[in-house]
Amino acid sequence: MTTNTETPQITIPADLLPADGRFGAGPSRVRPEGIAALAAEAPEYMGTSHRQAPVKFMVSRLRNALAEMFVLPDGYEIMLGNGGTTIFWDAALFGLINNKSQHLDFGEFSGKFGKAVAGAPHLDDPEIIAVEPGTRTEAVARPGIDVYALTHNETTTGVSMPLVRPEGADADALVLVDATSGAGGLRFSAAETDCYYFAPQKVLGSDGGLWLAAISPACADRIESIAASDRWIPPSLNLKTALDNSRKDQTNNTPALTTIFLAVELVEWINHNGGLEFAAKRCDESAATMYGWAESRDFASPFVANPEHRSSTVATIDFDDSISADMLADILRANNIVDTNGYRKLGRNQLRIAMFPATPPSDIEALTNCLDYIIERL
Questions:
Q1: From CA 114, how far away is CA 103, in angstroms rounded?
Q2: What is the largest CA-CA distance in the chain?
Q3: Pairwise CA distance, residues 290 & 301, whole Å
Q4: Closest listed residue to residue 155, CA positions, set 325, 354, 367, 317
Q5: Do residues 170 and 145 lie in contact, with contact meaning Cβ atoms separated by under 8 Å?
Q6: What is the DSSP track for 163-203?
Q7: What is the pLDDT of residues 338-374, one digit of tens each?
Q8: pLDDT in tens, 304-316
Q9: How far is C-alpha 283 from the chain's CA centre?
């Protein structure tokens, strides 16, 4: 066990360093090409009305690019609104759940939606199926459940799950999927979902302040139906308002224009290079390198024991007690390799590495070489 808590000064040779040292799980690495494109178009785009043609055209580009990347079935559409995923949870408990929902809880973020619903006085108590962090569970069809809330990728633990409609669910039940750290990096069939929602500051290499969702016709009908009922809905959380504005390529309130622009740049880059399969393969290659490194070292191991449960967009790596993961993260940061700390509430001796499409697999390999260099000198 390391007893010296003072962080040693270790300088990593320049030829070992990644080209870009940002490995955070959100906010995540933004491609320099996106920043350059934003700077070039800023005089005509930034500081202009979100209800006029330049910004509305950018929103249209984002909606169309996402529909192309997800290969949305006929009738599906992209909607968006102000705020992030947490705001969307509040909007969903008012505007998407009729009475009762089921939630899968296998980490900090996957559990938050269920907790929010549990406090809603107008809804029945939700069914929450919880398992230990580092594992996952499956939805179970029950009579009377009208929303099944899944999480494509648990950002805190590095666990991902396949997206499949629960067999035997009520015909009008909706499948809602939190995809914030999966959308654009993990394969899925949109037809298995009714509302695939996410924020753009993770896989999409953008900034925060926006939520987006790929929704089915059944989801749109649910939004319309609840909005037409006598249920009170806070105006800023009314999904009918968001849907109506999305169909006009705008948001109800002023959005962050930088967020929209950078998301467009990233999604169009993915589509230009082959779409979601291109992005997923890129993440797969990075994940194979990261997990392969951990499995080949006697001082490290993947936190997620079952390889089939491991995410290819967020890796969590445990270290034995002889090596302080916090110290590793501090030394990496001193060498301009940043945001590798594990999720604080897990309380484990681990690093968490984002492997989103904007990160080339070569940088993940460079990171593992840097880790070896540091650990050899501790």
A1: 6
A2: 66
A3: 10
A4: 354
A5: yes
A6: --PPTT--TT-EEEEE-TTTTTTS---GGG-SEEEE-TTST
A7: 999 999 889 999 999 999 999 999 999 999 999 999 9
A8: 999 999 999 999 9
A9: 13
Q: How many helices (H) and strands (E) does the chain have?
A: 10, 12
Residue 94, H or E segment: helix 85-95
- In sequence order, which residues have a C-beta less than 8 Å from that of residue 199 and are 6 or more positions away? 26, 84, 85, 180, 208, 210, 211, 212
First to last CA, the chain: 12
Six token digits for residue 64: 């169309």
- The residue ranges of every structural domain in the chain are 14-30+276-377, 47-272
Q: Which class is domain 47-272?
A: alpha beta
Which pairs count as long-range contacts for 179-182, CB under 8 Å and 24+ apart, including other chains?
A: 179/151, 179/152, 179/153, 180/26, 180/84, 180/85, 180/109, 180/153, 180/155, 181/25, 181/26, 181/152, 181/153, 181/154, 181/155, 181/311, 181/313, 181/314, 181/354, 182/152, 182/153, 182/311, 182/313
Query: Which residue has tokens 């681990």?
Result: 350
Lowest mean pLDDT among 108-117, 187-196, 309-318, 350-359: 108-117
Residue type, 352: R
For 34-66, the DSSP string reads HHHHHHHHHHHHTTS-TTSHHHHHHHHHHHHHH
How confident is residue 1, by pLDDT bands cut at 50, 70 and 90? very low
pLDDT, mean of residues 231-247: 98
pLDDT for position 2:
43
CATH fit for domain 14-30+276-377, picks 2.40.160.10, 3.30.1490.20, 3.40.50.970, 3.90.1150.10: 3.90.1150.10
What does R_g of the chain's alpha carbons equal in angstroms?
21
- Res 3: pLDDT: 41
